[in-house]
Write a structure and sequence with these properties.
Layout (H helix, E strand, L loop, with lengths): L2 H13 L48 H27 L14 H8 L8 E3 L5 H6 L4 H9 L22 E2 L9 H13 L6 E6 L6 H12 L4 E7 L2 E2 L2 E2 L19 E6 L3 H17 L4 E6 L17 H9 L2 H11 L5 H23 L25 E7 H15 L3 E5 L15 H5 L4 E3 L4 H12 L4 E5 L10 H8 L2 H5 L5 E7 L14 H5 L5 E3 L4 H13 L3 E7 L7 E6 L10 E2 L6 E5 L2 H12 L4 E5 L2 E3 L4 H10 L2 E8 L5 H12 L8 E5 L8 H7 L3 H13 L2
Parallel strand pairs: 1-2, 1-3, 3-4, 4-8, 7-8, 10-11, 10-12, 12-13, 13-15, 14-15, 18-19, 18-21, 21-22
Antiparallel strand pairs: 5-6, 9-16, 14-20, 17-19
Helix pairs in contact: 1-8, 2-3, 2-10, 2-11, 3-8, 5-11, 6-7, 6-14, 7-14, 12-18, 14-15, 19-23, 20-21
């Protein structure tokens, strides 16, 4: 790093009350060449009338004159394209709505110009159209996206601002504000773990900083020392709610102190100040990795979106905002500094206008999508791969978990295990014991208590080549991550067309007198989210297979591990390495009188019942609860004529009602009596042993129920 660069980093540290550090050597990675945006690019590869200039990507920085000269055309493109989209929306040619970036263009352009598309990890939101353009989006694709036509970026399946390019590390947003931040943290962490020296840029509005994931993500970035810029766009309103009702601190950037991060509030209407502050922060993060909060004070010159007339904004504020239009301010700066003449600027604008009109004209000629079927793909296609075999004698289920994790960490360099107390403590049920000693604290990682952001962290890492394994300490705690797991991770392939290989472990079930918040299964809840895969093993063999197959699958996979079985059941493991054969139901006994479906601990109760009963019982564990293959169950019921589903979950909490519904729809005429569901009462799991014993049921109750079903006919 040059003396000037080191001084710049020290200046940033001084203004944020962080002591300066010794400057290391500069990032030696060459800047990436950007992919074209629109029909013309304002950079070194494609110019309008502007002379060639440095790209501006860190660490090859622009002067003030060069920055304004680069930023203004991007800002103008953003404003002009959105104005045209608003006009098309008013005519009914744009679907959904249009969220305007007017007033935010200087913040967006000043920030994005510092980063390296394709290398640095980014998440942009509603008012960041200039960022998308700088990172490679083009007019035509964007117009098609807003029109929801057959050539839209998301093929018409996602909302008009929910777009990106996950393959190029520009993650598409979801509407749940704050949820994308942890993806940037995880993706940036993974890139640096691979030796890439990458940065992250995570955009959030002032309102979004009130969300829990904002704080969780900051904390994880700080603890894991991940160089991410959390850029807060403070325009005074969260939709219609003024910031006075969103937070009670003087500056949102002051929150940085609580996370050991650097923070600064700046003028977001000046692209140069945004750019300079961010690049200074990046220098600082080179020396001392960790997050930064840059709070950009900006404005919103229109309502939240096309349908919002902003009546709640005082007239004098609207007038003040009009006088502070960043597009006008930047245009004036260009002329004042002699960086461009009025004629040059006019020439750029005319070329941009022409290019936008040409792109919109083409987009208007494209028809709507024509779905071939109602079912769109929600899962990445399975890979039929062979892995190393594994054999073990007399292994308990808990040992099978440890063996599977050791197997994966040993054979897959990109595998990492994350969770609460998975390190030296070995996890709550000791299933991770010894792993940190064998594989190191950089691969077996104790995470902060932040289930939601940790799931997002895993999702981000999965997009940069990582294959994370996350343990929820208890299945109950996974509900903290409902949005991240069910909506963000589960929909990732559907909307981003990218695999999201992640393995989630959920120790679950009762029988250990742990009470309501440590004994749930919740397989019924997670089965309702498209895009997730669920496996529920009952034996040591199945446990090993479920974890290994779930890891190698390219979709988010949840493996339910019944806690009662960890150290109470054992069996041999004979895994031949054929992953394709894992994804199937398991039939333990053949029978002709009744079919019993069970999973988890209820499998062993059902087997005990089959051994006690005078009837011929066929016991099946579906094993793969989602996507559920109901055909083996139907085939069995067609033979036996009777169906009993045994689930430990409450009557409406599990999958039993779904299985009964599917069987009844398919083979009603074959049934000799109504299908029955044995389940716990619809209540939380009680604590005291006598209550919990009554709450659950066992083999004797199953035998009695089968006798009643057989006696009914």
């Amino acid at each position: 790093m040059t003396a000037g660069k080191a001084q710049s980093a020290q200046n940033f540290a001084a203004t944020t009350n962080v002591p300066p550090q010794v400057a290391p050597t500069s990032n030696d990675a060459p800047p990436l060449t950007r992919v074209g945006s629109g029909l013309r690019r304002i950079d070194t590869a494609h110019t309008l009338a502007a002379p060639a200039a440095p790209s501006g990507q860190f660490p090859n920085l622009l002067s003030k004159e060069q920055l304004y000269r680069s930023a203004y055309p991007w800002m103008y493109q953003s404003r002009r394209l959105e104005d045209r989209l608003l006009e098309l929306f008013a005519r009914g040619q744009v679907k959904g709505t249009v969220t305007s970036s007017s007033g935010n263009e200087a913040t967006a352009a000043g920030a994005a110009l510092a980063f390296r598309p394709g290398k640095d990890v980014a998440s942009f939101l509603h008012r960041d159209l200039a960022c998308h353009l700088i990172f490679g989006a083009n007019y035509y694709d964007l117009a098609c996206q807003y029109m929801a036509n057959a050539n839209s970026i998301t093929v018409g399946i996602e909302g008009n601002v929910h777009h990106g390019d996950a393959a190029s590390r520009r993650f598409p947003m979801i509407s749940h504000l704050g949820k994308m931040l942890s993806l940037v943290v995880g993706g940036t962490w993974q890139a640096n773990r691979q030796g890439e020296k990458a940065f992250g840029i995570a955009m959030i509005g002032d309102g979004g900083t009130s969300s829990g994931d904002f704080h969780e993500s900051l904390n994880i970035a700080s603890v894991q020392k991940v160089p991410v810029v959390f850029l807060v766009q403070n325009n005074g309103y969260s939709f219609s709610t003024p910031t006075a009702q969103q937070y009670n601190c003087e500056r949102l950037s002051d929150r940085a102190v609580g996370y050991g991060a650097i923070g600064k509030r700046i003028d977001g209407l000046d692209a140069w100040e945004v750019y300079q502050t961010i690049t200074d922060a990046m220098r600082h993060m080179e020396e001392r990795p960790g997050p930064a909060i840059i709070e950009c004070m900006t404005i919103r010159m229109q309502g939240h979106a096309a349908y919002d007339k902003a009546e709640y904004v005082p007239a004098e504020e609207k007038e003040s905002n009009a006088r502070r239009d960043p597009l006008t301010l930047t245009r004036n700066k260009l002329e004042e500094l002699g960086a461009a003449t009025a004629d040059e600027i006019k020439g750029w604008e005319e070329e941009i206008n022409e290019a936008i009109e040409e792109a919109i004209g083409r987009a208007l000629k494209v028809g709507p999508p024509k779905p071939a079927s109602r079912q769109l793909p929600v899962y990445a296609k399975p890979k039929h791969i062979q892995v190393k075999p594994k054999r073990a004698k007399n292994a308990k289920n808990g040992m099978a978990v440890n063996m599977a994790l050791s197997y994966l960490l040993e054979n897959e360099p990109q595998a990492t295990l994350l969770g609460l107390d998975v390190g030296p403590y070995g996890s709550a049920f000791k299933t991770c014991k010894g792993l940190v000693d064998r594989f190191g604290a950089d691969r077996v990682i104790d995470m902060p208590l932040a289930e939601s952001a940790t799931v997002g962290f895993c999702l981000g890492a999965s997009q940069i080549g990582g294959r994370p394994i996350m343990e929820f300490q208890f299945s109950d705690f996974a509900t903290e991550a409902c949005t991240q797991l069910g909506l963000n991770s589960g929909t990732w392939y559907f909307r981003a067309h990218r695999p999201a290989p992640m393995l989630f472990r959920l120790p679950c079930g009762g029988g250990l007198t742990m009470g309501a918040f440590h004994s749930g299964e919740f397989e019924g809840l997670w089965s309702r989210f498209p895009g997730l895969k669920l496996l529920y093993p009952a034996t040591a063999q199945e446990t090993f297979e479920a974890l290994v197959a779930g890891f190698y699958d390219d979709n988010p996979c949840l493996v339910f591990e019944h806690k009662l079985l960890y150290w109470s059941k054992s069996g041999d493991i004979d895994f031949d390495g054929d992953l394709q054969q894992v994804w199937r139901s398991r039939k333990y006994t053949d029978g002709t009188d009744a079919t019993v479906i069970a999973f988890g601990a209820m499998v062993h109760e059902a087997l005990a019942a089959a051994a006690k009963s005078n009837l011929s019982i066929e016991v099946i564990n579906p094993f793969v609860l989602k996507p559920l293959d109901i055909d083996p169950v139907i085939k069995s019921v067609e033979k036996t004529g009777r169906l009993l589903v045994c689930q430990e979950s409450g009557e409406t909490h599990g999958l039993g009602d779904r299985i009964i519904s599917l069987v009844t729809q398919s083979c009603l005429s074959k049934l000799k009596c109504p299908p029955q569901l044995m389940a716990a009462p619809d209540q939380p799991v009680p604590f005291a042993e006598p209550y919990e014993r009554r709450h659950r049921f066992g083999a004797d109750e199953i035998v009695a129920q089968l006798d009643r079903m057989y006696g009914d006919n």
